[in-house]
Amino acid sequence: MNTASKTSKRKQQTEAPSGVRENTSRKKMGGLSNAELMERARQIRRTIIEMVHAAGCGHPGGSLGLTDILTVLYFDILNHRPEQPDWPERDRLLISNGHVSPVRYAAMKAAGYFRKLDIMSFRRLGSPFQGHPSTRYLPEVENSSGSLGQGLSQAVALALGLKMQGRTGRVFCGISDGECGEGMTWEAATAAVHYRSPVIAFMDYNGIQIDGRTRDVCDLGDLEKKFSAFGWKTITIDGHDFDALRTAFRDARQYDAGPQMILCKTVIGKGVSYMEDDPGWHGKAPNDELAAQALRELSS
Ligand SMILES: Cc1ncc(C[n+]2csc(CCOP(=O)(O)OP(=O)(O)O)c2C)c(N)n1
Ligand SMILES: [Mg+2]
């Protein structure tokens, strides 16, 4: 069964009961104030903590660090239809650093996806919400991941393909700074310029990877200068500033003559005091006490 037919099969299963108002289109989701986006981000952060705590494993740090970015994308930028995930004209969001699956699942759920699926089954045997997303079990996620460094290549090619087909949807792709230690990232960076792929990439630029700070593990240098030197249109912004994020992504939509990289300076573990900027929270679950503290800090 191909992805499209799997998606429509799932769509039939997830049809909302009559009378239930769906959170349908960008029109309905757009137009949110920064305060409203912030509130959604807070709820998404709570869900991340609950999912990882319930599973007893997972990656809370990068997920919390990316929450503001994904909130802006799903609620203000992406042209998508949660009730019709295989809509051909949709924007695509690929996430290459798949370990941040908690934020992806939680943000998509908040935006109206997975209406009849339980994201709290995260990481359980047989759950569609695998630790690293797979289109085999969850076609809505657009790309499978786990092996770092591959998503940018996929996105570069997909963006080019959609453009050649005359489709209006744009391709967004999240990568991490740790992935810039992967050679394949730079092959994608080269090809994107050669073929003028209109991909809109953004980086979780938190200065941290699995073994510690990127400058200590394998110094990546100035990543804006590197992408710029490869020929990408680049900008560095604060990945927790809603105005900066909205402006950068909106501006990016206006340009399709080549690849763009929005480098988002983020803080790993953002929103939970004991996780912030601590590489130790790259990939472990909080215990009962720490989860309760996190949820207290994330209460309104
Ligand atoms: C090809 C590949 N090599 C190594 C790993 C193991 N690994 C998992 S996460 C990670 C660190 C990646 O850095 P980053 O995404 O920046 O981490 P974060 O900021 O989320 O802590 C590594 C090396 C992997 N998943 N895939
Ligand atoms: Mg990182």
Which secondary structure elements does this structure contain, and how are they paired or packed?
Layout: H1 3-13, H2 26-29, H3 34-55, H4 60-77, E1 92-95, H5 101-111, H6 151-164, E2 171-176, H7 183-194, E3 200-205, E4 208-209, E5 212-213, H8 214-218, H9 223-230, E6 233-238, H10 242-253, E7 260-265, H11 288-297
Parallel strand pairs: 1-2, 2-3, 3-7, 6-7
Antiparallel strand pairs: 4-5
The structure holds thiamine diphosphate and magnesium ion.
- Distinct compounds present: thiamine diphosphate, magnesium ion
CATH topology: Rossmann fold
Based on CA atoms alone, the radius of gyration comes out at 18 Å
- Average pLDDT, rounded to a whole number, is 92
Which CATH-level-2 architecture?
A: 3-Layer(aba) Sandwich
Relative helix content:
40-55%
Low-confidence stretches: 1-29
Number of strands: 7
Number of helices: 11
User: Total domains, how many?
Assistant: 1
Overall geometry comes to globular
How much of the sequence lies in strands comes to 5-15%
Largest sheet: 5 strands, parallel
How is the largest sheet built, in terms of strand order? 1-2-3-7-6
CATH superfamily placement: Thiamin diphosphate (ThDP)-binding fold, Pyr/PP domains
Per CATH, the class reads Alpha Beta
Structural class: alpha/beta
What's the SSE pattern? HHHHEHHEHEEEHHEHEH
Euclidean distance between termini CA atoms:
44 Å
